[in-house]
Design a protein that fits this description.
Blueprint lengths: L2 E5 L10 H5 L26 H15 E7 L11 E9 L5 E4 L13 E7 L2 E14 L4 E6 L30 E8 L13 E15 L3 H6 L12 E6 L11 E4 L5 E12 L6 E3 L27 E9 H10 L11
């Protein structure tokens, strides 16, 4: 039997009119690096656990942002229309973010990705991001926002990544988790002046599975039953269903308040036996729009009776390895 993993990118359910799809301009701009010093704070004490928990939730909310594509050249009275693809989150005060690599798959042939950020006493605003590095085998990517939102008056925060070595930073079975993602208030026709809606829930780490996340490798080995171990990625399952659009959102440990993984998608696991392998593929762009991200809609796979829908996440260790290769520091302590 094979594993069934359904990606949680929003590409599958966000729709816009055909006129809106024809309107976008893919004007890419060269980024300007803007850096600031790291900011480390002491962890909360037991006496302030309740207030620290609320503060941590606020920090997570400020660190997470939607990954989008701007559709309009000029704003309407409700801001810019956009296509929503998934989530990303800040990992330091230099404007670097992490997301799932498949969230960016529709930008491979052109188009400028952006993130939607909140501002105090003002509507949200789009900020352009550049793709610094990707690891398609382990489905992680590094982005950088320019100009640096931490120096420009946005309501932003950096999330701490799990410390320890690359193997120790993984959650163990039974560890409690917290997940927070954002989605547009109007899924069919989102606009920037509308505040994104947060989706938060708690879960428990269940188990680890090894699966091939690289579409190219999957296609190359479609007729080969045994895949090389180097092409497999460990993912951990947790006890909550993942909603489309949550790809790239952080999974944090409720014990350490550190990020331990990134949302990958849904794990459809029959309770009567072991799961089997099939990964939902992104719908290809129309031939006339190869330079523009698309919004094709795919049907949701049906979960068989007696099955349990679980969430799947990529351990943060893969992202930390990519950050190390690119000499990018990350925060390890939660902001106060």
């Amino acid at each position: 039997m094979t594993h069934r993993l359904q990606l949680a990118t929003a590409l599958f359910f966000i729709t816009v009119t055909s006129a809106a799809i024809a309107a976008p301009r893919a004007a890419a701009r060269s980024p300007r690096a803007n850096s600031s010093s790291q900011h480390a704070q002491s962890p909360p004490t037991a006496k302030t656990a309740k207030s620290s928990a609320a503060q941590n939730a606020a920090s997570i909310s400020a660190a997470v942002c939607p990954v989008v594509y701007q559709l309009d050249d000029s704003p309407t009275r409700h801001g810019y229309h956009y296509i929503f693809y998934g989530n990303a989150f800040f990992i330091n005060r230099d404007g670097y973010l992490l997301t799932a690599a498949h969230v960016l798959s529709e930008f491979r042939d052109g188009g400028q990705p952006s993130i939607l950020l909140s501002r105090p006493y003002a509507p949200p605003r789009l900020v352009k991001v550049t793709v610094v590095a990707t690891d398609v085998v382990h489905d992680v990517a590094i982005l950088r926002a320019t100009p640096n939102p931490f120096d420009a008056g946005y309501t932003v925060a950096a999330l701490p990544l799990a410390d320890g070595n690359l193997s120790d930073s993984r959650p163990a079975a039974g560890d409690p988790l917290a997940i927070q993602a954002l989605r547009p208030a109007n899924a069919k026709d989102p606009e920037t002046f509308e505040l994104p809606i947060p989706e938060s829930y708690s879960a428990t780490t269940l188990a680890y599975r090894a699966i091939n996340l690289d579409p190219a490798a999957i296609n190359a080995h479609s007729a080969t039953p045994v895949l090389a171990a180097a092409q497999l990625t460990d993912i951990f399952l947790f006890s909550h269903e993942v909603i489309r659009g949550q790809s790239g959102a952080p999974v944090t440990s409720t014990r350490t308040q550190q990020v331990v993984g990134l949302i990958e998608g849904r794990w459809l696991h029959p309770t009567s036996g072991l799961p089997a392998a099939s990964r939902a593929a992104d719908s290809p762009a129309p031939a006339s729009q190869k330079s523009v991200p698309t919004t094709a809609v795919a049907a949701t796979p049906t979960v068989t009776r007696g099955s349990l829908t679980q969430g799947a996440a990529v351990p943060i260790s893969y992202a930390k390895s990519l950050l190390q290769k690119n000499h990018i520091p990350w925060t390890t302590t939660a902001p106060q």
